[in-house]
């Protein structure tokens, strides 16, 4: 308690003091008389009176943890006289199972001690020296009140009171109360059963004994001796039921009866259920249901290079960010209890998604409503990409749940080994803004994340065709015709289309040209060599101009700058005899003409003939029959058309009807 020297007043309105009474720690609060006082047992309520009859309203009330005062000749508190004052201490507390106690007093002047209102000590007289007394008595179990009255008539004032259990085995035969509130549960952090109970009220309590038995036996074993009100037991056999009881014992060695037996079933962690895996962009994502008793989980996977990898998590999800794209990994997941014991494994397998395409661009085509979309991938790191889906919208964000856009796709290999893909979207309109994202997918159809957005606006439609091509001239040659024309000057000119055809004439009707597209030529080319058999027929030609928007002068005007010419006629004057049983074909290979033909049954060789327009005869290119079914005419005259016969020679020396063909050998320039 707080001692106040003579002549010094208490100046603190309230004070909390930690003190020990009968082995228990109690907070004690002192307060002024003007405040309502409630003292927590086993602290005493202390009342100061300015008379020796302890009557009337106390001058001051506070809490006191121990009765041990030496005020000397001074006043015990502010507002009290030095002489003829009284002090009363009172308290009600739980004595647990009760038993033998010793009440001791030492005081100068009068002191009386009451238990449950019954006076047990009476030293009520004015004297000049201390008087003391000890009384031994048995206090029953449960709650009882103590009251100590003290008066100081004159002279020095001092008072002391203690009460304590008598703890020798010869005196104390009272057993402690049975511990109550016993509970047991598995502490999952350690996988150990934790037993707890309510503290006994015994003042002579020495501790507790915790007993345990397995479900298979009726015999308890001592698990622990402790002064605490809980016990964390050993790691026990998982999946078994154990029973616990608690007994209190006092300083005299008396032990209570056992508490109610409380069971607990230790947790046996099982393999995680509901294990699922999903390939995502960041790796392989797994989840499973919580396992009772698990404090963590271990995830193990096989590495493609051999060995295993692992990770430990406390949640029921895990993403393997080390997984390679498109490489299937086998995973197993086990629960781990607080003792480090593993459950059986649950298994799954999965692969990481392919990467999203990168460096996506969308470029408008000059004069066209068909933009080109390009993107790049790295086959070494982006996974086994099977193909791509192109998604398009006219607003953001791009909806990737709809049917992908169809477009013609091509690719090239870049110098750094990456692949660049492109596609032309032909289903767009003029003067419209489009947004594109690309998703790669693997051979299972699993799509990657969407790429970055590429935006393009198509140009406004061009409805003006180029001017008609002018100045077309056609020169007949021994290999067909040479065409020349004046260049068009439109800035959006994309190509020239060369047409040639046959002329049909009806009596008294203008000539009609039945034309076919022959070639597409990009500016600035304004010449074309048309190779055709020069057989003297009348032919027609014209050149059409097409711009980048696809506008064609011919398509718009339906008229053309037709030029009509008669081809040269190089047809041999010697007709090919009928009746050949085989065919021959010729092809230009470099500067040579290669002839090949069918086999003729019974033939021992073949003769090759070439038309000589000077001598007007077919001359032999081979003096003797050749056994092969092909022949190469080397270095024939260029800039003309060559005609050939191939006949079969039989064993009797006879020669079959020839098969004929021709080959154009154009100029080399």
What can you tell me about this protein's structure?
The protein has 669 residues and is mainly beta. It folds into 6 domains: 14-165, Sandwich (Jelly Rolls), CATH 2.60.120; 183-265, Immunoglobulin-like, CATH 2.60.40.10; 276-350, Immunoglobulins (Immunoglobulin-like, Sandwich); 358-457, Immunoglobulins (Immunoglobulin-like, Sandwich), CATH 2.60.40; 473-566, Immunoglobulins (Immunoglobulin-like); 584-665, Immunoglobulins (Immunoglobulin-like). The chain contains 1 helix and 47 strands. The protein is rod-shaped, with a radius of gyration of 58 Å. Mean pLDDT is 91; it is low at 1-34.
Write the layout of secondary structure elements.
Elements: E1 14-21, E2 24-31, E3 44-49, E4 60-64, E5 67-72, E6 85-94, E7 99-107, E8 110-115, E9 118-123, E10 131-139, E11 143-152, E12 157-165, E13 183-187, E14 192-196, E15 205-214, E16 221-226, E17 230-232, E18 241-250, E19 262-265, E20 276-280, E21 283-287, E22 296-302, E23 308-313, E24 317-320, E25 329-336, E26 346-350, E27 358-363, E28 372-377, E29 387-393, E30 408-413, E31 419-424, E32 433-441, E33 454-457, E34 473-477, E35 480-484, E36 493-504, E37 512-521, E38 527-531, E39 538-547, H1 553-557, E40 563-566, E41 584-589, E42 592-597, E43 603-612, E44 617-620, E45 630-633, E46 640-650, E47 659-665
Antiparallel strand pairs: 1-2, 3-4, 3-6, 5-12, 6-11, 7-10, 7-12, 8-9, 8-11, 13-14, 14-17, 15-16, 15-18, 18-19, 20-21, 21-24, 22-23, 22-25, 25-26, 27-28, 28-31, 29-32, 30-31, 32-33, 34-35, 35-38, 36-37, 36-39, 39-40, 41-42, 42-45, 43-44, 43-46, 46-47
